[in-house]
């Protein structure tokens, strides 16, 4: 990480000679002989007139200049005369996707224009760090500054001709190898503008993230019955573990308020992966049974500190009565879906029929009536998260002795819903569309993710180029935006999503709304962060539950996470530990975020994380029989 005392500013003409000397000394750090350095001197010379023309910037601390970088016009790049084929919607689709060829290249590897327009190209002309400042984060800070300025100036690509010794640095920064220029390795970085929704969501400020998952879920008593007087049950414990995802509720937080105590080095590891700086951590806020929101009210000095710092609060979800409570109801959501689809303005969407059952007996009668005609059904409680409160009930199960009793017996008491089964449910094609309603009532689209679903249980999601075929993504966005307008009119403000089943008939079937940040929203946040830091168009996967083969002491857990990060880095993938506290449960698991350039690399990293985590079961050996 860069030292806090280092700052970056525009170079001055009067510093030209000093900067030329620094560049030559930096080149000599790699052990080149004097004759070679003498031959490089003219090429590395910076004249006073070059400072502005080559957009030279310097990094300095209180003792002097530590490094320099230049952002220069690529010949022909300013005129915008490089023309490429427009990006196609099928590029980057995963292997086996019907709408695209297997392993089609993603946009980050095509070198193509956006929407048929030319891409303005710049080059990194110079990047040198004084030998005494190497490995202090100065080069990283200068490189990130170059990317940010190039993006601000409207460049769509940055080209780099690297010294061979510096090539590992650029690869680690996320630049894509692009052949050689004689003896010099070449790299390219695709620069995409920050998505408009990021600024609208954050207001251009860093915030305090509150992991109030259990508090939010407690609104829905029928789905989350309390164990009277006995403290948090296993569902609340699970919610507190998932509260670790609140760390990622914006691309760069200022403070985290988490219910459980996280491993000591967890925040350091996350901050290094995402280049966070100055993040304050307040954890263990639910150890006495209260959630973070209640704990915050009990810590007036902490609340005053956050208030005085001007930090907006970004909770997992907004609690209290109103639209959030109503539209987390699956029957209310179903009624809204039918109302929106009634006028035929969403031809890519088909809303499943739904019947209300006030009692279990009424639900059983409905299931039997549908089974007699051979129809499968879905049985739902009014509320439930992550697939809880939803059961697929095949007709043959209903016809089997005791089948109906088993089906309704797994759901909590109270009103139930019987819903038309959509062929394709649980076959890995479920989608979710994310957006949010800003304080002014405007609906902002974020994107569509493909979910990893086993039966009805959510396990993770992937976002990025080709994750969802374009036609389905557009249908989900149109319908999701319409849902958002209804929520806004009802007074809701905040994040929301709409979940869909991708039916075998090609239509999307909306199944529920979630008025809170979720796992897919976290993937969108991390993608926005890494796209800005590293360039390109990342695929990001949130893996909510990676089983661990053994419970580990904290030090061994962090060593395991470090090994996973290094193994993924070898594949060109960024790995971020998202949920760490569940590693100490009797049935331990991790949550992980993976960011990759290609589907092949993403799947390889997924396999590595799962295999290495499962292999922990062998670290203690087999018990010896006596």
Helix and strand arrangement:
Elements: E1 7-10, H1 16-28, H2 34-44, H3 50-53, E2 56-61, E3 64-73, E4 121-129, H4 138-152, E5 157-161, H5 167-172, E6 176-181, E7 184-190, H6 196-202, E8 208-210, H7 213-217, H8 234-242, E9 255-257, H9 266-274, E10 280-282, H10 292-297, H11 300-308, E11 313-315, H12 323-327, H13 330-341, E12 354-357, H14 360-372, E13 377-381, E14 390-393, H15 395-399, H16 403-409, E15 416-420, E16 431-437, E17 443-454, E18 457-463, H17 470-489, E19 494-502, E20 508-514, H18 519-534, E21 539-547, H19 554-570, E22 574-579, E23 589-596, H20 599-614
Parallel strand pairs: 4-5, 8-9, 8-11, 9-10
Antiparallel strand pairs: 1-2, 2-3, 3-4, 5-7, 6-7, 12-15, 13-14, 13-15, 16-17, 16-19, 17-18, 18-21, 19-20, 21-23, 22-23
Helix pairs in contact: 1-2, 13-17, 19-20
The main sheet comes to:
8 strands, antiparallel
Based on Cα principal axes, name the global outline: elongated
- Strand fraction equals 15-25%
Rounded mean pLDDT score: 85
What's the total number of strands? 23
Which radius of gyration do the C-alpha atoms yield? 27 Å
Major sheet: order of its strands? Answer: 20-19-16-17-18-21-23-22
Structural class: alpha+beta
Helix run count: 20
What keyword list fits this structure?
disordered C terminus, D-amino Acid Aminotransferase, Chain A, domain 1, alpha+beta, Aminopeptidase, seven-stranded mixed beta sheet, single chain, eight-stranded antiparallel beta sheet, 626 residues, 4 domains
